[in-house]
Amino acid sequence: MRETGTLHLRARTATELSGGERARVLLARALAVGANALIVDEPLASLDPGHQLEVMALLAARAKAGALVVVILHDLAIAARFCDRLLLLDGGRLVADGAPDAVLTDTALARVYGIIAHRGTVAGAPLIVPLHRSH
């Protein structure tokens, strides 16, 4: 609970938690097991931007410490910033596999998401901003 910043919530029941608090408590529960592998599906849902960054930094630290961390995300900028390897799926099929800059290409973004996006960097961090549909 310390790692996820939820220690102060320990006496509250699940029905008293906001969606973001509940998500962070569930992550704390998963981390408490101490498993060498962690699969998290949309761990940033219901979290404010600050907590999103904290959760991704925590998961990245776990991966750097040797754990297998698989994260399902729809936020392209967060995926590009925190993930070493991306698997891009479309309709359950693998479209691309590799480093974020090799996977999140203009062609792949248009094909899978039907978007044109601005891609760049800010302070060394990758930035992907969907601009419009690519019709």
From TrEMBL:
Membrane spanning stretches: none
Alphabetic keyword roster: ATP-binding, Nucleotide-binding
UniProt domain ABC transporter: residue ranges: 4-45
GO molecular function, one term: ATP hydrolysis activity
SUPFAM superfamilies assigned: P-loop containing nucleoside triphosphate hydrolases
InterPro entries reported in the protein's UniProt record: ABC_transporter-like_ATP-bd, P-loop_NTPase
Protein name: ABC transporter ATP-binding protein
Protein source organism: Alterirhizorhabdus solaris
